[in-house]
């Protein structure tokens, strides 16, 4: 399919979408989002155990740093709440 054909289809879809009542637009957008989420889930499920482990390892340090930064503020907050 050529780029011109795709752009023409997209333009027509937007025209049709604009004519729908607001509640139907919301339903259609929710459906589109769910399709995207399903596609992402399929991609994650298709990863091998090794690839998934590599991704987890790649972000592990960032996750730990974020958790430590959050917990640093958490204890003083709990102490202030106890004193109140």
3D structure, described in words:
With 84 residues, this protein is mostly helical. The protein is 92% helix and 0% strand. The protein is built from three helices and no strands. The longest helix is centred in the C-terminal third of the chain and has 35 residues, at 49-83. The chain is flat and about 60 Å long. The termini are far apart.
Oligomer kind: single chain
Q: What's the helical proportion of residues?
A: over 70%
Number of helices: 3
Give helix and strand order, one letter per element, not per position: HHH
Parts with pLDDT < 50 across at least 5 consecutive residues: none
Largest sheet: none
Whole-number mean pLDDT = 88
Helix and strand content put the structural class at mainly alpha
* Radius of gyration from CA coordinates: 23 Å
How much of the polypeptide forms β-strand, as a percent range?
under 5%
- How far apart the termini lie comes to 66 Å
Task: Indicate the topology.
Layout: H1 3-19, H2 22-46, H3 49-83
Please outline what is shown here.
By secondary structure, the chain is mainly α. It has helices spanning 3-19, 22-46, 49-83. It is 92% helix and 0% strand.
Tags for this model:
84 residues; mainly alpha; 92% helix
């Amino acid at each position: 399919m050529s780029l011109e054909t795709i752009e023409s289809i997209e333009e027509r879809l937007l025209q049709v979408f604009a004519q729908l009542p607001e509640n139907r637009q919301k339903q259609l957008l929710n459906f589109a989002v769910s399709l995207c989420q399903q596609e992402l889930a399929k991609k994650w499920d298709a990863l091998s155990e090794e690839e998934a482990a590599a991704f987890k390892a790649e972000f592990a340090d960032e996750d730990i740093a974020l958790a430590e930064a959050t917990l640093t503020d958490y204890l003083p907050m709990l102490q202030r709440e106890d004193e109140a």
